[in-house]
Design a protein that fits this description.
Elements (H helix, E strand, L loop, with lengths): L1 H8 L9 H33 L2 H27 L14 H29 L8 H27 L3 H30 L4 H28 L5 H12 L6 E9 L5 E10 L4 H19 L1 E10 L4 H17 L4 E8 L5 E9 L7 H13 L5 E9 L3
Parallel strand pairs: 2-3, 5-6
Antiparallel strand pairs: 1-2, 4-5
Helix pairs in contact: 1-2, 2-3, 2-5, 3-4, 3-6, 3-7, 4-6, 4-7, 5-6, 6-7, 10-11
């Protein structure tokens, strides 16, 4: 059904990177979600009343909150599609993250309420009545929720929507929860023991788990997280495959939501190369990143000395010392400034976040390392963090 609606309602439906197409997908998914959840809520209230089941009624309330979540998603797609302005030059795409947080908060609140009502049902059990109508409604609900999970996951990934992916996670937890309720309704009369309250607690745990997962993902996006290894590899492949580039370092990627990637990197070039030629190469690279990957890339050009055997020997020796601290540590921007009494070795060291040594401890280790070679060398080190 959703694919049919996509064909009928969305122009240029396969151009997922376009803002208007992305917004159209979000609006359509939200409207379909509102309709389906309201229908499921009404049917489950009917089933819960017939079966005298708190877990079915709670599941109905869950669907009502899902309809509210879809309404919040609808508003978030409208807000996130707003163009960049003077106060928000990076756009408004992170409204979706805020919407995900609101959805997750509603889910957590519902889970807590369901635990309370389920415990009360355990302490004061009532007879659950099996009904074929209730059975059919719950079976239909499971099928609908599985379908909602599939289309929200598929299109959420295609348009990079955190709200749709949060809806997908919520839908699969709803399907599992409803399946548990259905099993309880069937088994309770057979074993002459009311499982309704206990199943309600299980359902609540699934709901709380889904809410926690959505909050965690939304917080990661709001706080900022490292780019994917695939993205880093593609960026490095493009830069290092360019004629005239000797290396790269200090890559930083900022993600401000779907299709809003900003990045900066230092690119090493031979100091002997004509500066205008190198600058032209850098300009072309920045333009290609925008055209091919929709990344606003800022590239800093680092001239390096590549033909000095003494410098290269010292750089390799210090690199060995850096790798002894941690194999993921690295150095760059290595240069040498000779003097009458001593020689300064100036360079940057990139330290991954999992390395717990302080900069002072690392400095001491590296100074001990260079003194083994010659006491005339002094180290001037800038410490960087690994952002990818």
């Amino acid at each position: 059904m959703f694919s049919f609606l996509v064909k009928k309602c969305i122009s240029n439906a396969e151009q997922y990177e376009k803002s208007e197409v992305r917004t159209a997908y979000g609006n359509l998914a939200s409207l379909v979600g509102i309709f389906l959840n309201i229908v499921l809520c009404a049917l489950k209230f009917l089933a819960g009343t017939i079966a005298n089941s708190v877990s079915i009624t709670a599941d109905a309330i869950n669907n009502l909150s899902d309809a509210g979540s879809s309404l919040i998603a609808l508003v978030s797609f409208k807000l996130s599609s707003k163009p960049a302005d003077e106060d928000h030059p990076f756009g408004h795409a992170r409204y979706e993250c805020i919407a995900s947080m609101i959805v997750a908060t509603l889910i957590l609140f519902l889970g807590i309420e369901l635990i309370s009502s389920s415990v009360d049902k355990i302490l004061h059990p009532e007879i659950v009545v099996f009904s074929w109508l209730s059975f059919a409604i719950l079976t239909l609900s499971i099928a609908v929720k599985l379908y909602m999970f599939l289309y929200n996951r598929k299109y959420g990934r295609l348009i990079h929507s955190s709200v749709m992916q949060a809806t997908a996670a919520d839908s699969i937890s709803d399907a599992i929860a409803t399946a548990a309720v259905l099993i309880s309704m069937v088994i309770s009369p057979l074993i002459h023991f009311n499982l309704d309250g206990y199943v309600g607690v299980v359902v609540a745990c699934f709901i709380l788990l889904a809410g926690y997962g959505i909050i965690k993902e939304a917080l990661n996006e709001i706080l900022g997280q490292a780019p994917s290894k695939e993205l880093v590899h593609e960026i490095a492949k493009r830069i290092e495959g360019t004629s005239g580039v000797l290396g790269m370092h200090d890559l930083i990627v900022h993600d401000y939501g779907a299709n809003r990637l900003f990045a900066s990197v230092h690119v090493e070039v031979d100091y002997r190369e004509d500066v205008f030629k190198s600058h032209d190469m850098i300009d072309n690279l920045e333009r290609e990143f925008k055209q091919d990957m929709n990344i606003e890339m800022v590239i800093h050009m680092d001239p390096v000395v590549a033909n000095d055997s003494k410098l290269n020997e010292l750089k390799e020796y210090m690199n060995l010392g850096v790798k002894e601290i941690d194999k993921e540590c690295s150095l760059h921007d290595f240069r040498m400034v000779p003097g009458e009494t001593h020689t300064n070795l100036i360079f940057d060291v990139v330290v991954p976040f999992h390395v717990k040594m302080s900069n002072v401890e690392i400095q001491k280790r590296l100074e001990e390392h260079i003194k083994k070679k010659d006491h005339m060398y002094f180290l001037v080190i800038t410490y960087d963090r690994l952002y990818v």
